[in-house]
Design goal:
By secondary structure, the protein is mainly α. It contains 7 helices and no strands. The longest helix has 73 residues, at 63-135.
Length: 260
Amino acid sequence: MKITENRWDSAKSFFKTYDNFLLLLLFILISLVEFSIIIYTNAEWARDILKKIFLNADGSFNLTTITAVIAIITLIVNTYLTSRKYKADLISTSRISWLNTVRNLSAEIISSSSNIATLVNTLVSNYKDIEKIKSGEKNFNYDSKEQGLKKIDIHNENLALGINKNRSILLEKTNLFKLYFGDNTENNKVVNESEGIMELSNDLIRLYLSFSDGSPAIKASELLVEVEEKLDIGETLLDQFSNSCRNYYKEVWDKAKAGK
C-alpha cells in the first residue's frame, strides 16, 4: 500500500511539472490506442504485451509505466516545440537584422537624392544670378562684378563637390539595396522605385553639367524651369518609394514578431 501511495505521489508530482491539458490529451491518446488494439485485433500477443506494460499482476493500472510513457511522449513533444521555437527565433532575428539594414539603405537613398536635388537647384539658381551680374541687371551688393562672379564660382564649386559626393552615396546605396531583394513582383516594385530615383538624380546632374560645360544652348532661367519640373517628379517618386518601403517593412516586421 505504501509503495502504491509513493507511486501516486510521484505521478502527481510529475503532472505538476508539465502542462496538465497537454498531458491529459496524451494520456487519452494512449488509452484510445490501447483500447483500439485490444478491441479490433485478435492477436493474443498484442493483448499480453499491453497487459504487461500497463497493468499490474492484480489487474490494476501500473502508474509507474503510464507515467514513464507520458514522460517519454512529453519529452518528444517538448523537443519538437523547442526546435520549432528555436527556428522561429532564428527566422525572427534574421528578419529584424535584414529589416534594419534595408531601412537604413532606403533612408540614405532618400536623403542623398534629396540633397542632390537641393544642390542642383541652388547651383542652377546661381547660374541665373551670374547672368544677371554679367548683364548688369543686378549686382547683389557685391563691390564689383568680378567679385560677385568669383564668389558665386567658389560657391558653385562647393555645390558641385556636394553633388558628386551625394551621387556616389546614392549609387552605392541603391546597388546595395537591390541585393537584399529577391526577384518577385512585390520586391521588384520597391527596387524599380529606387532605380527611378537614381535615374532622376542623374537627369538633374546632366542638366547642370550641360549648362556648365561650354556655351549653353539655353539661358539659366530656362534651365531652372526644367530643373523645377524634375524636382516635382522627384517629390512624387520619393513619396511613392517612402510609402512602398513603409508598407513592405511593416509586413516584414509583423512576420518577424510572429516568427514566420
